[in-house]
């Protein structure tokens, strides 16, 4: 069947049924992204004033964390010089104060929970309960209207309120995003491509701080949920991961007892000890969402170095290597659903069968294309505006390889007792925005699948 016809009917089915999905619990990371578009002259002036020699030293090698203004400016230069993204935690309060004074051009919702809450609740109208580590007025103002709730304790009881009605005056967890275009110049440095440096002035999300409401009243909060998504574990380190992962285990057990399927939105986790510890919990999840870099990083800690290299060797990514990796991951952990996304196509390996798995992927791909095309998706009807974006031609050989290897038909095959679902995605050539597009893909596919069941 032609992919466009499948796209169209998948969208109509999900749209018609998305109202059936109950509340989705989202934990744990929400923050404020403060975007500053760098200005070459301004940056040069700041570097001169701070001490050029010292700043330039940090442009050679990134520090582990930022403890001074020269380190901040040097780290920004490090990114510019290489056209590479980097993210560092900002330790010193005087540097945080400096950053606040430097300011921002734009505030955006940040953190996977915040982004998914606005998409699911604010765009699709699916009710969500969000974990927001700190609810300042600035943070509350970034939530869209719609059925988005945070738990608030009143007389020892949990009440669900919209974040703007929480009345919180807590801290602002700000991630400063210093963006530069390709060709951006500072002194004799020139950026080979556009990118950004992120300085996180945030002690809460970086440590996966879990609010007292979620520690003390989790059973009550979980009671009203039908689905859950966990994210934000990526910043944990060998020093601080034990506490948060212990709480996560307790939460997963409560959700498991109630039969609530939980999706883990995996993000690149630098620390290998943490990556392994997350893998050990994977069996308690219904499913996991990841891209090629993340899947390769998991293969590495599973001792599958050759497979990890294969995953990063081709463009588009070799789908047979991806399938092998997913089979290994499912076999090792017992996780029931693995959703893989890459530039050009998605795959889902499930231990259950049905076209609804593929159709949910199609809905997610349409949502991702709409986001790339429009920048901001305001309602579910905006999603269909991506129908005119062509299906990626580079996915054709991928589909052929899957047909040849596994006898795939209309995006569905059976492999070692699992179902493998494939969709070619729609790629927007000049995207307006790709921030949080991975979160859009994973949450749309997960929720879409349960809408169609
Ligand atoms: P991020 O962390 O930035 O969200 P991910 O790797 O998780 O990054 O998600 C990026 C995904 O977005 C890619 O795998 C690809 O499927 C999709 N994508 C990226 N650019 C486009 C585009 N221009 N049009 C459609 N989809 C895109």
Write up this protein.
The chain is an alpha/beta fold and 453 residues long. The chain folds into two domains: 3-31 and 110-163 and 204-452, 3-Layer(aba) Sandwich (UDP-N-acetylmuramoyl-L-alanine:D-glutamate ligase); 34-108 and 173-200, Adenosine kinase, small domain, CATH 3.30.1110. It has 18 helices and 18 strands. It has helices at 3-17, 40-50, 52-58, 69-82, 93-102, 112-123, 137-140, 212-216, 218-223, 242-257, 272-281, 292-301, 305-311, 319-333, 355-374, 380-383, 395-406, 437-452, and strands at 23-27, 31-37, 86-89, 106-110, 128-130, 148-154, 157-161, 174-180, 185-186, 189-190, 195-201, 225-230, 262-265, 287-290, 337-342, 345-350, 412-415, 418-424. An eleven-stranded mixed sheet has the order 7-6-5-1-12-13-14-15-16-18-17, with helices on both faces. Strands 3-11-8-2-4 form a five-stranded mixed sheet. A hairpin with a 2-residue loop joins strand 9 and strand 10. It binds adenosine-5'-diphosphate (ADP). Residues 291, 341-343, 368-369, 372, 425, 427-428, 431, 434, 436-439 line the site of adenosine-5'-diphosphate.
